[in-house]
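Ticket closed. Logging final result for MotA/TolQ/ExbB proton channel family protein.
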Amino acid sequence: MMLILMDVWDSVRGFMASGGDVLWLVAAVLFLMWVLMLERYWYLNWISPKQHQAVIASWEAREETTSWHAHRIREAWVSQAKQDLNARMLLIKTLVAICPMIGLLGTVTGMISVFDVMAVQGTSNARLMAAGISMATMPTMAGMVAALSGVFFSTRLDSKMRISLEKLKDSMPHH
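Final structure:
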């Protein structure tokens, strides 16, 4: 088992070395994005239902639910639930949008490395230029893959949050 982990770690280190320092930045943004998304999934599946049940119980415990004042209270509770559900979603979406930009930063730094090799060694040393081209393409690919995974899961998370909020609204009838 330890040998397999060592092989995996060596593969990851080799991949990260071929992409340059910008690839570490892509990895850090990807890690933060996934930590935030997992926290939102955890909140949506375990914390939010309990809070929604408490709000529904408070609404049902009210004697009067038809006046203007009762409707404003209902709206405030629904608004608070919506705010709690959408917490950190803007940050997640921003991180998703930043991933391809960081990848493009890697493209620029990799091409600068290629041009630096060309200036020092000339255009005849393809092996040295290949390292720069790798540094240009790997972060771009990683940034796009990170963004795609983030787009898919953040959209799904957003949809589940909207459904949860609609269920809360439907559970609090107002006449």
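The mean pLDDT is 91. No further action required.
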